[in-house]
Amino acid sequence: MEHQVKKLTLAALLFGAFSASAYAQSNVTIYGLVDAGLVRESGGAAGSVTKVTSGIGGQSRLGFRGVEDLGNGLQAVFTLENGFKADDGTMDNTTSALFNRQAYVGLKSKELGQLTLGRQYTMLYNALSKVADPFGAGYAGSTKNLFATAGANTRVSNALVYASPVVSGFSAELLYALGEQAGSNKAGRQIGLGLGYAQGPLNVTLAHNKRNQDTAAVGTTPAVIRDEAKNTLLAANYDFKVVKAYFGYAWNKGLNSSPLPVANAFGFRVAPVASTDSNDLVAGVNVPVGTGNLLASYSRKDDKTVRNQDADQWAVGYLYPLSKRTSTYVAYARIKNKNGAGYTVGNNNEAGSGDSAFNLGIRHAF
């Protein structure tokens, strides 16, 4: 009897150790961001607009991130991320997609890199928001006000993304998104490429995004052939300790390579026309001031078409941390449109309604 008890006890210990080991090898993290504040916009056809809104610095979100150790240095990974509006509790999109921000699964290896499938960010947007823009593509000073980052330039569905291992600071990423139109493997597809170097105080990325905008034939409706939208961005920042400097320069060519955030926000008799050939520039700084950070940037849209609808944006902001997870912010930006251009000052989640905007808000990450 005593022998059997010892055997049962040993079995229980082994089972417990195995369960603890299995649990340690896989985990799911729940994370998110709640961002809400006061926005005042002016200068547009809608007049002065004051509102409480969500996602000013970064869209409010709830996400699930998982990792499972498969052995031999291989891991299974997944991310599911939903965006919502903290001002009214609704979802931040009109498509009723539950995980509209990110939804992917894949495999990761230290030696071979990572391959993921699903809805994911483009290399172009990551380079702009994480490397070139001191405002991180948020607040009134967001470079999204002038740079071509709308729609599929930000994130794309049905995508395969490969990210290489980092070797001596160098890395590469490749994206291929299927258009999934019956009768054509080319219509609607998207290709992205990113080459990066991050070592010490220097961070540089060269990103390219190409979108096929053809529509495949459906029944008696013929196929529609359109120009491709091509966007290339050189992004860099350098940390001088007393100040962090940012720079970005983009080349945009083709239909929808630079879509207008708002069709005719200023109510012009002749509506602005989206450029099909343009260059974008941003230069900015992040300066530690007190316990917070002062942000400032200058952005420019150079329309190279005959319309020459250029625009300049100046922006300033201050982020003040209340803790490691909670911060307050204030930001202001103003755009000067030229030759009938119609660019607006928005933020991370909204396109804006006029040529200037003021933000005051709070955000909490968990």
TrEMBL record:
<dbReference type="InterPro" id="IPR033900">
    <property type="entry name" value="Gram_neg_porin_domain"/>
</dbReference>
<protein>
    <submittedName>
        <fullName>Outer membrane protein (Porin)</fullName>
    </submittedName>
</protein>
<dbReference type="Pfam" id="PF13609">
    <property type="entry name" value="Porin_4"/>
</dbReference>
<keyword id="KW-1134">Transmembrane beta strand</keyword>
<comment type="subunit">
    <text>Homotrimer.</text>
</comment>
<dbReference type="InterPro" id="IPR023614">
    <property type="entry name" value="Porin_dom_sf"/>
</dbReference>
<keyword id="KW-0812">Transmembrane</keyword>
<feature type="domain" description="Porin">
    <location>
        <begin position="10"/>
        <end position="339"/>
    </location>
</feature>
<dbReference type="GO" id="GO:0046930">
    <property type="term" value="C:pore complex"/>
</dbReference>
<dbReference type="GO" id="GO:0015288">
    <property type="term" value="F:porin activity"/>
</dbReference>
<dbReference type="GO" id="GO:0009279">
    <property type="term" value="C:cell outer membrane"/>
</dbReference>
<dbReference type="InterPro" id="IPR002299">
    <property type="entry name" value="Porin_Neis"/>
</dbReference>
<keyword id="KW-0732">Signal</keyword>
<dbReference type="GO" id="GO:0034220">
    <property type="term" value="P:monoatomic ion transmembrane transport"/>
</dbReference>
<keyword id="KW-0406">Ion transport</keyword>
<feature type="signal peptide">
    <location>
        <begin position="1"/>
        <end position="24"/>
    </location>
</feature>
<keyword id="KW-0813">Transport</keyword>
<keyword id="KW-0626">Porin</keyword>
<dbReference type="InterPro" id="IPR050298">
    <property type="entry name" value="Gram-neg_bact_OMP"/>
</dbReference>
<dbReference type="InterPro" id="IPR001702">
    <property type="entry name" value="Porin_Gram-ve"/>
</dbReference>
<keyword id="KW-0472">Membrane</keyword>
<keyword id="KW-0998">Cell outer membrane</keyword>
